[in-house]
Amino acid sequence: MARTFKVEIGTPGPASGNTEIEPWIAVWREAAAHFGANAPPRLLVDHEPDRWYHVTIDVSDVVDVFETDLALRNGDEVLVHERWAKREALGEHPLGAHLLVTLAPAGGHDSEGSLHVLGRFIQHWFLAMNLALPGCCTTFRPRLPLEADPDPLPPDLSGSFLENAYEHSLKRGWPQLRQLPLLQMWDWLQAELLYDTHIAKDPLDRALFTVLRVCEPELQDTDRILLIAQALEGLLSPGKEQVGNLLRQRLEVVLGPAPGKKNWFARFYDLRSRIAHGDYPLLRPGQFVGRDLPPVGEYTATFWEPTDQATAVLLALLQDLAAANVRQYSFEQIVHRS
């Protein structure tokens, strides 16, 4: 028996008021076309051989929120108030949104206990959407309002880290991040990251899991630096001891040199090394930090640029692999004598 889950995902719009909303709307409309009720259902396979699901996802509520955001930016206050009034009449938050995800068992079993499958689907969905257009999908502080005592809750993932990386890469002109077809990203991801992958050992799987981890809102900045560095090393120089210079060279081979930002990698890798070797201050964990204190603000600011640039580089590599429909890089050294 099919089950439909209502997943409230907080405020789905851009974190920055300067982010163009039209491309976001285009990706979510593409999602509606390929994954909605009138589209062919996508096959989703659980870790047990006989647990198959067909999945559809209704994203119309998110599209409505984005179109309202666009109307607000265009100064159409009448339309905005009409939409907000309609949402309030339906008991919906004016700035919030929800997804409707339907899991239909196709392997001779019922869908009870499928919250784990729902969570893994949303993780894959988040990855595919943000590979198509970095930052366009978020599931910040999700809720399942129609489920009693849900365990586990859907993944809490903030797309703002990816949005910032994308926007700043456009301003810098490097690395080249693109808007790619959602269905192409989904099909590549489904082939490369299986639902039964619970422990990522392969470099590509680790890199994809890293994108999910760095988008967890409570993750420490130091952990983000280490995770991204490990992902880059795995993709470009696995098994090498002295990876710094080799990694930088291979990044430039794949993505081209960073114009005007030649020292970004040295700063990033120096920060990574200091953290890894225990030579960097650590912020108090949790919500007990005096974030309005100048020393704390100065501390967190040191991570913004290196994390932002390294995140953009990781996204660019994953987009490059997905666009070529491959899962790894191979580097060959050629010697010419003349």
Walk me through this protein's architecture.
With about 350 residues, the protein is of the alpha+beta class. The chain has 2 domains: about 160 residues, no CATH class; about 120 residues, no CATH class. It has 11 helices and 4 strands. Strands 1-4-3-2 form a 4-stranded antiparallel β-sheet. Helix 8 packs across helix 10 and helix 8 runs parallel beside helix 11. The termini are far apart.
List the keywords.
4-stranded antiparallel sheet; 11 helices; alpha+beta; globular; 2 domains
Biggest sheet record: 4 strands, antiparallel
Number of helices: 11
Strand coverage percent: 5-15%
Q: How far is it from the N-terminal to the C-terminal residue, by CA?
A: 71 Å
Number of extended strands: 4
Q: Strand order of the main beta sheet, please? A: 1-4-3-2
- Number of domain units: 2
Instruction: Summarize the helix and strand pattern as letters.
Output: EHEEHHEHHHHHHHH
In round numbers, the mean pLDDT is: 90
